[in-house]
Amino acid sequence: MDISAHIAAGLKQLGNPGVVTEDCFSKLLEAGVSVITDSQKLPNLTQLCNFKGDAIKESYAALLSVLIEAARHDIYPDALSIILLQDYNFGAQRNDKLIGIYRQYKTRLQAALSHIGTHPPHIIDASWTLDYCIKASNLEQVGDFLYLIQFHTESCQGCGSGTSVSRFKFLCTQEELQDLVWKLRDAVRHVERIANTCDLSQRCYTNLAK
Amino acid sequence: MEEVDGIIIHSLRQVGCDVEDDVDSLKQFSTELVIEAAVRCLDVIQPGLGLPHSLPDSMSARFRVGASIAQACKNLGYSGDIGYQTFLYSSEIDIRRVFVFLIEKLPKESGKSIVEPTGRIGVLEKAVSETVKKQLASPWLPRYCRRRGIRWYDDGTWSREGCGHNQPFISCNIDVPKTANSRGLSQAWREYYVHHLPLVTEQVPHIHQLLPSLITLNAKGLLTPVQPVHGAISNWDTCKINQQLTDCIARSFDGCSSAPEKESSVAALHIQDNDKKRRKETNSRFALSERLQFTKESNKDKKLQESDEQPFKSQVVMGAEKKRGKEEEMQIAKGEMERLKECLEALQLDVKKLTTKLSQITEEKSHEIRVLKNKEQQQIVKKQTYDLLPEADTNLSALQTSVESSAQTLVLLAAQWEKHRAPLLAQYRDARERNSNKASESQKKVDALRNLREKSRELGEEVRHKEQLHSQLVTEYEKVTKDINRSAYTRRIMEIIGNISKQKEEIDKVLKDTKDLQKEINNLTGQLDRSFTVADELIFRDAKRDETARRAYKLLATLHSDCSELVQMVEETGATVREIRDLEEQIETERAKNVGANLDRISADLRQMKQETAALTAQLNAKS
């Protein structure tokens, strides 16, 4: 985990009891975690900025940055504690508090980070109707099954919260549907193989050991 | 037997039998305990038998349970005599034999050696496969049941399903106050930082852009060269070397990350500007045309007034023509307006041309003025020289003297300068040397500091690693401790074997002794027989002639028969003693089977059974 010089300066401010009081530190920590994990509500921190507002703002930014960077790089809480104690002169109490919060919320921080990114649309549901085509304008007798399939997909929107659910339909014959099913089965089998690779390799290891 | 009991009880406890701590021999086992232990062993050996762990109340059900356990044991290959009575009316020896058999049949714990994959790729593959397995094992969850597109498991882990609630990585510039070098900031900046700059969370246009913006902020800070005033010393050198490179990267990065934002803002500004300009233009044009129109109209009015005066008199006469005339006038006015517009445009062009010309001319003028000034100065110099010309010699000499004197003063000054310069230069060199010394020293210190920091970090890492190793080893050790029992057992077995061999030696010794004794006895009997026959012959030969010899012979014969009788008696006594001992042993074994108590129990159970049967019959009768 690399921390830039500005953020490092902010962290030093955060660890300095003369600038950020203990009470203020707890409030900042609480607010920071809730901002990252639950972005629906913004905590009000204006009354904290009355005394040394610039330092509070700087340390708040540094706190948010360090939480995000640590979660992004999947740093162990113990390693983070060593970094904070050694490089940023954190007191033991403050360090324990921050590490405790980090330990508790690490997975949720990572979940919040996972919201970043763009993906192709994701199929969440499917509905279908089966038609039997008896005859067409140019053919006396057709006698084919026609499957009308509708995929419900969800896709991320550019900005703002929530997702958009869209549908797209397509028509296919029996053979084409069979093809699709085979493809899907292939995909499922592939995923299962990935899930079992660990066991396979383990079995290999044990065989070798014997 | 104590040893065997201890091993059996330990094994039963491992199987999951609830044997109390103060029980240390099979003698103390109750019927319930025996049944439970046997059933648990059978469960482990052959899962799925479905035998009850406790005895039922009904006597016949008890009998059935005992019989089925016995049958299960027989199926496993128990060769001894076994039946329901073995478990229900237990004798210690039978039970022991059965338990020894069952514990031998217990499946050995196969050495499950799970080899952990090593290396980063192996660990990663394992994690991936475990996650996929977990996701495959979990049931399907509809979209609206997921919390912001994420499924949370009970153990606190999560997996993202679908792509709901995703946000693209859009970052924006956020401003963070820098208090570390606040001395270099102006008062106004500090004022702004303290009172007006919003928190980082409020600087982003949308809260979803906070995380990308913070990540970008940190990355940008890493890529831009660090300020020497407050930057970390360790970074300074490398930054100096790579300054140009990082500069370049940072610039491109800057362009990359915030290009859309900036561009859009710039574009917005442009648009705004253009808008304003256009508005202004339109305004001005509008105003102009209005003005023009008004002027035209006023002109028109004037003209109309002028022209009106004439047709006014004939207004009544040419009522119908009036309209046409007005229309014509309108046409004319329009044409005039067009013409005026063109004229105006031409005039505007002229104005433009003239302004450019004016600027050119002003430039030329300033240039000319400069030339004039130069010339004036030259003229003054020339005038002075001309003034000096009439007394050329004297002036020349005066000039020469002044030149010489000035040269002398120059030399003097140079000498003085040298005088001042030399010590100053020396001082400067000295100071510079000292400075460089100091710099190198501080550099060394910085290096040492950096090394120390690196070392401390490495040591910290090592400590953490070691602690992990320690905890791992502790868990392994805890796993291993179970095997201590085994070693104790082997030790005990070895002791038992030693005891047995010792006993065997003793038995051999006793056997040898007995054989020796037998041999001696045989020798003695032989000797006795031989001496008896010799004495018999001797005395018998004399007995024909001598009366006393005959008496002696008779006495000898009675002595011999008495002695042989005595020997026979002794032998018989020994046999009887042996028989007594055998019988005593038999009594002991019979007593161990506690037949009496079992008999009592059996008779009690029989009575209970009879009662149950009677009750059942009564019920049957009552029903029928």
From TrEMBL, chain A:
The lineage of its organism: Eukaryota, Metazoa, Ecdysozoa, Arthropoda, Hexapoda. Residues 122-195 form the COMM domain. InterPro entries: COMM (IPR017920), COMMD3 (IPR037355). Belongs to the COMM domain-containing protein 3 family. This is COMM domain-containing protein 3. The gene is Commd3. GO terms for biological process: sodium ion transport. It holds the Pfam family COMM_HN.
TrEMBL record, chain B:
GO terms for biological process: positive regulation of ubiquitin-dependent protein catabolic process. It comes from the Eukaryota. This is Coiled-coil domain-containing protein 22 homolog. InterPro entries: CCDC22 (IPR008530), CCDC22_CC (IPR048348), CCDC22_N (IPR048349). Residues 323-364, 500-527, 580-619 form a coiled coil. Residues 1-107 form the CCDC22 N-terminal domain. Residues 126-593 form the CCDC22 coiled-coil domain. Belongs to the CCDC22 family. Keywords: Coiled coil. It comes from Cryptotermes secundus. The keyword Coiled coil applies. GO terms for molecular function: cullin family protein binding.
